[in-house]
Amino acid sequence: MSSTSPSLLQQINTIPNPGGVGLPVTTYAQEEQKALQLQLTTVPNQELSALSSQQSALQSLQTAMQNLQTATNSLASSQNWNSVTATSSDTSSFTVTATSGAQPGIYNIAVNSLASYDTWVANSSQSSSTGSSTLAADTLVLQPSTLNSGAAVSISISSGESLSSVAAAINADTSTTGIQAQIVQSGSSSFNLTLSATQSGSAYDFTASDSANQFGLTHAVTGTNASISLDGLNVTSSTNSFTNAIPNVTINALKTTATGVTDTLSLNQDSTSTVKNVQSWMSAYNSVVDILKTDTAYTPASTANNSPGTSGPLFSDSNANQLLNALPTTVMQSVTNNVQSSLSSLASIGIVLDPSTGHLEFQPSTGFQSAGTTVSLQDGQTMFQNAMQANAAGVQALFGVVSSNTSSTAISTSGVLGNLTNQLNTYLVGAGGQPGLLSVDLTSISKQQTAIQSNLTQINQQISDQVNNFTQQLNNLNAAMQKAQFQMQQFSALFGGSAAASSAATSSASSSSSSGTTTGG
Q1: Which are the contacts of 212, defined by CB distance < 8 A and separation ≥ 6?
Q2: What angle do CA 16, 20, 24 make, to 5 degrees?
Q3: What does DSSP assign to residue 514?
């Protein structure tokens, strides 16, 4: 009977416990740890998650504002406003290119002469360029007019030396003399040595002679400078390229102009390039606005969709909300324009704010109207281009453009760009040695994260200590139950043995009584 009933130890071991006999210590300890972590770490982890979202949002905003600052500084430089298109009335005579900073204008131009390379030719030929020659021992003297301080260079020639060897010796001094040698095949078995300057222009002229006069050297071409007439002024260049005749303009002469004929070089204001620069600046502004509107927004709860209300990571950030409200006023407010008083705001040149998105845009001819309504307005981009055509200086003054001939960026202190620069500096740079507002926010978040992480470390240590203590208690309980089970087995064995002896005695007495009765009968 006792052998068929499960013992207490057997009953305890029916509880799933991969770790061993008795109570499932590992399972209970894991459940205890989960419960404690849920109770004690949920709130700090939620706080860390919220801070991380705020941090990422502020970093994205900071990057977008830095991009806007870069775009603002770029638009503030006059070099990005004075783009011109350069055209030649006769591209067979000359071509022209203009870089940033070139000013509009029209010039009369004539190509008087092209640059040439000083050249000497040896009229005495050899039957081979590489084989033995008929040359006797000689000295070839090369004398640059200006290079090497005008000092002559002597090339020693040995008897029978090949033309290719002579050319190699001359070319070994090219960096000093500015003279290079070539071998020209003038017939089936006729090879001649030629000498030429490495660069065109009179500064690279030279003389060549040999003491024995066995080369028969003659001066084939004199090195000359190129010459053009620009609005009646004679301009020369050692090459066919003129880079300083007109600032930031390069003229490439291709052929001489017929006597008495002049061509036209035109530099016209490139409004298309200017429009693109302004659009890039507006795009950088719009990116900042998009981030601010998204990250400070609140979406109310919806009973229809059974969704709770949600807020952006910067919903409660006062600096972000202040910036969102300040930016439109900063760029759209009227400014003092000392060049053209009628151009006092971006709206006066066709740049407006889209009321639905907050974006800076060229005013659409249909306006920002709801569906089903019609309106006719002047196209904003056309307004801008017309203003640039009529008074480019006035438009630049409205923006606060800084005159610069050397840098493609500038820091504006007036106009629309100056106002925006001041606003951006408040958030990015700060004043009086103090950090910008975004840096202050990010520093505060970092400190909060550090404090919460430190607190979490302590909490996790406390949880670990408590779980370890709980585990020890369970192990002690298992040990106690095992000891009790052992004692129960001993009691069971003890009382089980006495009962068997009593049963045997009763059976024997009964048998004797039965036997005695029979005998008595």
Answers
A1: 136, 138
A2: 45
A3: H
What would the DSSP string read from start to end of 388-410?
HHHHHHHHHHHHTPBP-SS-S--
For residues 227 and 249, what is the distance between their CA atoms, to the nearest angstrom? 16
Q: What is the pLDDT of residue 216?
A: 95
Q: How far apart are CA 312 and CA 292, in angstroms?
A: 9
**Helices 380-399/415-428 angle, 10° precision:** 70
pLDDT score, position 15? 46
Please name which of 232, 248, 245, 148 lies closest in space to residue 198, comparing C-alpha atoms: 148
- pLDDT at residue number 498: 53
Contact 151, 178 (CB under 8 A): no
Structure tokens at 51: 């801070």
Gyration radius of the chain over CA positions? 49
H-helix segments, 340-436: 380-399, 415-428
For residue 134, the SS3 value is coil
232 membership: H or E segment, kind and range? none
How far from the centroid of its chain's Cα atoms is residue 307's Cα?
Answer: 39
How many helices, marked H, and strands, marked E, lie in the chain? 9, 19
What whole-number distance in Å separates Cα of residue 434 and Cα of residue 417?
A: 23
pLDDT at position 373 is 61
Rounded to whole angstroms, how far apart are CA atoms 72 and 422? 11
Domain boundaries, the chain: 1-83+270-298+310-493, 84-114+226-269, 119-221
What is the number of alpha carbons within 13 Å of residue 470 lying toward its C-beta? Answer: 19
Would you give the DSSP letter of residue 146? S
pLDDT beneath 50: ranges in the chain: 1-15, 17-20, 500-501, 504-521
Structure tokens at 254: 């291709």
Amino acid at 200: S
The whole-angstrom separation of Cα 29 and Cα 127 is 104
Tell me what pLDDT residue 288 has: 98
Rounded distance between C-alpha atoms, residue 475 and residue 217, angstroms: 112
CB atoms under 10 Å from CB of 102, counted, come to 22
Query: What pLDDT, on the 0 to 100 scale, is given for residue 122?
Result: 96
Q: Identify which of 63, 67, 70, 72 has the alpha carbon closest to the alpha carbon of residue 442.
A: 63
The model carries a pTM of: 0.63
CB atoms within 10 A of CB 431: 10
Residue type, 31: E
Cα–Cα distance, 422 to 401 (Å, whole number): 15
Within a 10 A sphere around the Cβ of 27, how many other Cβ atoms? 15
Enter the DSSP assignment of 81. Answer: T
Q: What are phi and psi of 8, to 5 degrees?
A: -60, -40
What integer pLDDT is reported at residue 2 of this predicted model? Answer: 42
Q: Which two tokens stand for residue 260?
A: 């008495």
Give me the helices (H) in 296-338, please. 318-332
Instruction: Look up residue 169 and give its two tokens.
Output: 């010796």
